[in-house]
Write a structure and sequence with these properties.
Layout lengths: L1 E2 L2 E8 L2 E8 L2 E7 L5 E7 L11 E11 L4 E9 L1 E8 L2 E8 L6 E4 L6 E7 L14 E10 L5 E9 L6 E2 L4 E11 L2 E7 L8 E2 L3 H5 L10 E3 L5
Parallel strand pairs: 6-11, 12-15
Antiparallel strand pairs: 1-2, 2-3, 3-4, 5-8, 6-13, 7-12, 8-9, 10-11, 14-15, 14-17, 15-16, 16-18
């Protein structure tokens, strides 16, 4: 596979497979000893590069004014990271993660108690956009204002636990909700579904790290403001 400055390939070398990836002059090579394993290449939570700096993704966008007790659906983009997994039975091994999107970081909250976030700026779309799937995915976000006041929102923060990524050959997506309980406080969570029919669910990074799978919806409390 080749795209712009990215090249990924597998080759057979007697009893072994060789994995090779080059991007922007950075090269990764791996020898794989397997005659029955499976290779899976799919998008993963965009919080692994350069070295798992944070568990939080922050998407900033043009301010939206939401009327009292209303629900509105918008679409945002998010940065893509792609992982290469080896799989046999229930055992997974991640041998490479790469991204064509540069990493940017921000701080959500005050300097002493806030959290570092992976930062991404997005336009606001009322219909599903079609970004380059090797660069950006699409978040279908339901903004739920439970208050009796107008609320301004210009960012959403997600935690990696609970992220559910789905993909096709030309679309990467997540489905999420933001429940506003006060003008400056909201909960965010993901739904386990793609935004269109027939999408494949990505292998999540916790499978390769041996973490237990939590089979319930996980919420993140945004209590440091929505703008």
């Amino acid at each position: 596979m080749e795209k712009d400055d990215l090249k990924v390939c597998f080759s057979k070398d007697d009893e072994f497979l060789r994995y090779y990836r080059n991007m922007g002059g950075s090269t990764v090579e791996q020898i794989i000893a397997s005659d029955s394993g499976t290779v899976i290449i799919n998008p993963v939570e965009p919080l692994n590069l350069p070295d798992e700096v944070t568990r939080f993704l922050e998407i900033r966008f043009q301010p939206i004014e939401i009327e009292p007790e209303a629900t509105r659906r918008v679409y945002l983009t998010f940065p893509i990271e792609i992982a290469v997994f080896l799989q046999k039975g229930g055992a997974y091994r991640c041998i490479d993660i790469f991204s064509r999107m540069p990493q940017k970081y921000s701080l959500y909250g005050p300097t002493d108690t806030g959290v570092i976030t992976r930062y991404h700026w997005s336009n606001v779309y009322l219909k599903q956009p079609n970004p380059d799937p090797s660069l950006e995915g699409v978040v279908e976000l339901d903004l739920i204002n439970t208050t009796k006041s107008w609320v301004e929102v210009s960012r959403v923060v997600f935690e990696n636990n609970g992220m559910k990524i789905y993909y096709t050959h030309d679309l990467v997506s997540m489905s999420a909700g933001m429940k506003i309980i006060k003008p400056t406080i909201a909960y965010t969570a993901f739904e386990d579904k793609g935004i269109v029919g027939g999408m494949q669910k990505s292998i999540e990074m916790h499978y390769s790290r041996g973490f237990p799978v939590v089979d319930k919806m996980i919420y993140y409390l945004m209590d440091e403001g929505l703008t």
